């Protein structure tokens, strides 16, 4: 079975207007269906990398999402359809007052019939066991609940590529487990950043370690997440399950 290339990055750099070089000449190829965990210390460039994947920020160098160059303005609409990004901070993501409208925003934007939109919202909330928030207001829910709604909003669009920035942070054990279960059955390409290395061990087929905007290591979870020296050198620790 032939797999498509989901993400192709050649010498991709990103500098913030303030001057920080957040990503430096990244070369990366991620295939369709891969579940890739991005790890690295605070400020390594993880979140910045995710914001490039749906064209939110434009990098230097060459970046393609499913064969479409992000630098080409005419591809942006299609790239936004193909790639969904869940921000690290849900307050950057949620913008409708009602949970239903927020989760429905993407599907409605895709031009789906209202009955289909409702089905998508139900399905997305069901995956995260958050149906009880269906009639809530986005301003009167907890931070962890906002995080769940932000994730549901992207799931409801059914993008080919899902970029999740620290999704398990602030989730209780039950909802964290729901997310793990979904990631393990999903056929979508998933790129996920996390400081919760146990979560990545449970969900990823590949780990990329970033530091100072560069790839320090790229390989199977078994090689990277059990390498105490490598993790310590990069301000990280072994996943809890490997600490004795
Ligand atoms: N909006 C911004 N403007 C200017 N510089 C920024 C901005 N956001 C991040 N940076 C800088 O870019 C670099 C990469 O930041 P980024 O947020 O991508 O790191 P990260 O790996 O996601 O860190 P964390 O683990 O804390 O989430 C850091 O040096 C950071 O200070
Ligand atoms: Mg970050």
Architecture blueprint of SSEs:
Layout: E1 5-15, E2 21-31, E3 35-39, H1 46-53, E4 60-65, E5 68-69, H2 76-82, E6 83-86, H3 99-109, H4 114-127, H5 143-155, E7 161-165, H6 173-185, E8 189-193, H7 197-203, E9 206-211, E10 214-219, H8 221-224, H9 228-233
Parallel strand pairs: 3-8, 3-9, 6-7, 7-8
Antiparallel strand pairs: 1-2, 1-4, 4-5, 9-10
Helix pairs in contact: 3-4, 3-5, 4-5
Bound molecules: adenosine-5'-triphosphate and magnesium ion (MG).
Residues 46-47, 88, 165 line the site of magnesium ion.
Explain this structure to me?
This protein is α/β, with parallel strands linked by helices. It has a domain at 5-85 and 159-242: Rossmann fold, CATH 3.40.50.300. The chain is 34% helix and 25% strand. The protein has a six-stranded mixed sheet, with helices on both faces. Strand 7, helix 6 and strand 8 form a beta-alpha-beta unit. The longest helix is centred in the middle third of the chain and has 14 residues, at 114-127. 41% of the residues are buried. The mean pLDDT is 96.
């Amino acid at each position: 079975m032939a797999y498509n290339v989901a993400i192709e990055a050649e010498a991709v750099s990103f500098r913030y207007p303030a001057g920080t070089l957040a990503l430096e000449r990244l070369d990366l190829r991620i295939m369709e269906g891969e579940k890739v965990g991005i790890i690295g210390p605070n400020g390594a460039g993880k979140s910045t990398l995710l914001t490039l994947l749906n064209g939110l920020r434009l990098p230097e160098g060459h970046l393609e999402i499913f064969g479409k160059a992000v630098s080409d303005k005419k591809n942006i609409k299609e790239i936004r359809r193909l790639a969904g990004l869940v921000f690290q901070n849900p307050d950057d993501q949620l913008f409708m007052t009602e949970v239903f409208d927020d989760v429905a925003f993407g599907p409605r934007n895709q031009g789906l019939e209202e009955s289909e939109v409702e089905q998508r919202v139900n399905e997305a909330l069901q995956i995260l066991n958050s149906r009880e928030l269906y009639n809530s207001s986005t301003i009167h829910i907890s931070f962890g609940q906002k995080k769940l709604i932000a994730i549901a909003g992207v799931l409801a669009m059914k993008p080919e590529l899902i970029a999740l920035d620290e999704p398990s942070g602030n989730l209780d054990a039950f909802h964290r487990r729901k997310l793990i279960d979904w990631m393990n059955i999903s056929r979508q390409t998933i790129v996920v950043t996390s400081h919760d290395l146990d979560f990545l061990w449970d969900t990823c087929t590949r780990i990329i370690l970033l530091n100072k905007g560069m790839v320090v290591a790229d390989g199977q979870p078994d090689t990277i997440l059990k390498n105490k020296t490598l993790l310590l050198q990069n301000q990280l620790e072994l996943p809890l399950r490997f600490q004795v």
